[in-house]
Amino acid sequence: MLVFILNAGSSSLKYQLMNPINKEVLAVGICERIGIDGILKHEFGDDQKIKIETDLPTHKEAIELVLKTLTEGEGKVIDSIDDIEAIGHRAVHGGEEFAGSVMVSDAVINKMKELIPLAPLHNPANIMGMEICQDLMPGKPNVAVFDTAFHQTMPDYAYMYPLPYEQYTKNGVRKYGFHGTSHYFVSNEAAKMLDKKHNTRIIVCHLGNGSSVSAVFDGKCIDTSMGLTPVQGLMMGTRSGDIGAGAIQYMMETEGWNIKEMLDVLNKKSGIVGISGKSSDLREVLEGAESGDDRCRLAVDMIAYIIKKYVGSFAAALDGVDALCFTGGIGENAALIREKVCAGLDYMGLNIDPVKNNKRSGEPRDISTNGSRGRIFVIPTNEEYVIANDTYKIVKGLE
């Protein structure tokens, strides 16, 4: 079965063509600068790549170009669109309505439209991708896989904010969490790697330009760092993470910022780029720290310290930890961040092996010492596989 996986952003469109049964990826790519000028980057076969620069005024033209590239010319990997059996869509916010992946219908799209205030940048683009695929590939089943769904198992005392209760009942103000497909995949892989069948206590650190931590007990999320929106939690590439409300009020008053300007600072000018003053790319910041840039050094220390605090609090929530997992671009590749996060966690039974930690590999691996009571894993995430597999199971009636 071939599943076309779509992740529609406001001005970009990521895609994969995958067989979820054997995990074979036939093609992967991205359309960028939609509505500006338009670029398609398409990878297929044995590391073959093509780049197409053309006008992409809307997402419809972008998806049409992707489908044409998959079926014609140099980048062809299938004979016809008919070879695609289903489309799996990344959907960012499902609120409380969606605790799992669902077949896309008018009712689902209407409910997602109601949730747009909770994800104004993401849900409209996700919905657009679904509607365009329904138009371009009529009769093909579409499945929505929600970033928030995995976190719907959190108990009420973990997801509620200590605000007037009416803010929850009237406006849905609560913690939802994100990166759910990644946390689900990595925690499941970690459970397989552990020599423990039940009551597994796993902490997943998904670290990239956007970052989050989750506490997973026996396969179910009991807490996560992101909240109503993705700005809460860890320090990220451009997002601030946790900030006191008083600090926000003070900055708005002293700088004369309105709420839109304040949110722009919190979402786009803070985090790694805000502290380092150099870049939101941790690789550049690590290079800066090595060369003696004190603001880059501070950014690195803050990143690791904040992650470590969440690891400690989630170990308390889980009553211990069997496995601490690192994933995402930073989690998989930044050995120094893993080292700093794990330093001093011996009391929790987590001992990192410096030699294993500094070895690079694209495969899941254990980087803890042989005598470590808890395990420390580096597990490459595969969100696209989760989307493809959920799509396969729902279309085939297996869920």
UniProtKB/TrEMBL annotation:
Site annotation Transition state stabilizer: residues: H179, R239
Stated EC number for the protein is 2.7.2.1
Q: Report whether Metal-binding shows up as a keyword of the record.
A: yes
GO molecular-function term, one example from the UniProt record: ATP binding
- Positions bound to Mg(2+): N7, E383
- InterPro entries hit by this protein: Ac/propionate_kinase (IPR004372), Aliphatic_acid_kin_short-chain (IPR000890), Aliphatic_acid_kinase_CS (IPR023865), ATPase_NBD (IPR043129)
One Pfam family this sequence matches: Acetate_kinase
Q: How is the cofactor bound?
A: Mg(2+). Can also accept Mn(2+).
> What keywords sit in the KW lines?
ATP-binding, Cytoplasm, Kinase, Magnesium, Metal-binding, Nucleotide-binding, Transferase
Residues the record marks as active site: D147
PANTHER family assigned: ACETATE KINASE, ACETATE KINASE-RELATED
Summary of the function given for this chain in its UniProt record: Catalyzes the formation of acetyl phosphate from acetate and ATP. Can also catalyze the reverse reaction.
Family listed = Belongs to the acetokinase family.
The name under which this protein is listed is Acetate kinase
